[in-house]
């Protein structure tokens, strides 16, 4: 996973803190640890200040900001981290923490859980489906008043279970509550995709222009463009970009790339006498047979058959 930016990053030579346990996070902020694998976070209760550090996450975390005065940066672009937004992190992510003014008890609440908590539960097989863990903080979730209420209710249910003595049922019950929360967040993100239709439409238009220009400018010979290439060009993470494209078009970004590639191939096959291998190389294929297989899979006929049909039509 790539590096994410949280609470106004970046500065050089920051201390790196490895968050490989719930207790290591709680000790940073002077919070109590009631369960070694999960905690409901309320930084209003923090007794220690944490600033100008880089956190190397070994746990899953979700944070809801209520009143933190800061700005995020995604690459070189500033992003207003507004009140009522949720950011999420997964094991393997690197997060910079930097605020303009040191604050002992920032108004932030959230949830943190270790991967071991969900081992053997239904959530373990589903956790990778929650793509928002791979989104950058530029793609944070903005909650409505009702969505915020549901978010807090989920945290309250988890907190209530953690108030009981730990037994053989604790992990499964807590994991089920976490799954409900994550399902809500997935629904809220779908709503956000819909309510940002104008923004998404602009991104799709930009994607289509970039895709067309890629082949029109002859870059195809440099290789088949990846989803990451176009996501980076529109300043989004591949996960968010891919999910947005799928929801807006019904097709994956990779499918749209392939369709554009096939259109280019059809033009070359119909309008030029170039060998199949030359066309394949111009589209970024290292091996012509790979191009032929893909062309037939998409169109139902081979490149040679298409050329013959186009010239006899």
Describe it.
The chain contains 11 helices and 11 strands. It is an alpha+beta fold. The strands form 3 sheets. Strands 3-10-5-8-11 form a 5-stranded antiparallel sheet. Helix 9 (276-282) crosses helix 10 (288-299). The radius of gyration is 24 Å and the shape is elongated. The termini are far apart.
**N-C termini distance:** 50 Å
Shape: elongated
Treating each run of at least 4 consecutive H or I residues as one helix, how many helices? 11
Biggest beta-sheet profile: 5 strands, antiparallel
Radius of gyration: 24 Å
| Strand line-up across the major sheet | 3-10-5-8-11
- The average pLDDT is 84
Q: What is the percent of helical residues?
A: 40-55%
Secondary structural class:
alpha+beta
Task: Give the low-confidence spans.
Answer: 1-12, 70-81
Report the sheet-strand fraction: 15-25%
Number of strands: 11
SSE run: EEHEEEEEEEEHEHHHHHHHHH
Which tags fit this structure?
single chain, five-stranded antiparallel sheet, alpha+beta, four-stranded mixed sheet, elongated, disordered N terminus, 313 residues
């Amino acid at each position: 996973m790539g590096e994410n930016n949280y609470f106004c990053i970046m500065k050089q030579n920051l201390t790196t803190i490895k968050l490989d346990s719930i207790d290591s996070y709680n000790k940073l902020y002077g919070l109590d640890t009631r369960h070694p694998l999960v905690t409901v976070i309320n930084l209003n209760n923090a007794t220690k200040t944490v600033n100008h550090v880089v956190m190397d996450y070994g746990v899953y975390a979700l944070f809801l900001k209520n009143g933190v005065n800061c700005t995020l940066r995604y690459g070189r672009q500033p992003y207003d981290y507004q009140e009522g937004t949720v950011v999420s992190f997964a094991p393997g992510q690197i997060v910079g923490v930097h605020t303009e003014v040191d604050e002992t008890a920032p108004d932030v609440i959230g949830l943190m859980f270790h991967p071991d908590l969900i081992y053997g539960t239904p959530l373990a097989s589903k956790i990778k489906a929650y793509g928002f863990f791979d989104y950058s903080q530029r793609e944070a979730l903005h909650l409505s008043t009702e969505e915020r209420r549901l978010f807090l209710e989920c945290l309250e249910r988890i907190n209530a279970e953690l108030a009981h003595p730990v037994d053989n049922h604790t992990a499964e019950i807590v994991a089920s509550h976490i799954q409900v929360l994550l399902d809500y967040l997935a629904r809220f993100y779908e709503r956000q995709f819909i309510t940002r239709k104008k923004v998404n439409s602009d991104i799709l238009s930009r994607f289509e222009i970039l895709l067309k220009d890629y082949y029109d400018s002859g870059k195809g010979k440099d290789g088949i463009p990846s989803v990451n290439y176009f996501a980076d060009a529109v300043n989004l993470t591949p996960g968010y970009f891919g999910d947005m494209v799928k929801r807006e078009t019904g097709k994956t970004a990779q499918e749209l790339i392939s369709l554009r590639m096939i259109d280019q191939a059809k033009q070359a096959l119909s309008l030029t006498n170039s060998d199949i291998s030359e066309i394949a190389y111009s589209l970024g294929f290292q091996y012509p047979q790979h191009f032929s297989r893909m062309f037939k899979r998409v169109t139902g006929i081979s490149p040679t058959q298409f050329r013959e049909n186009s010239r006899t039509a």
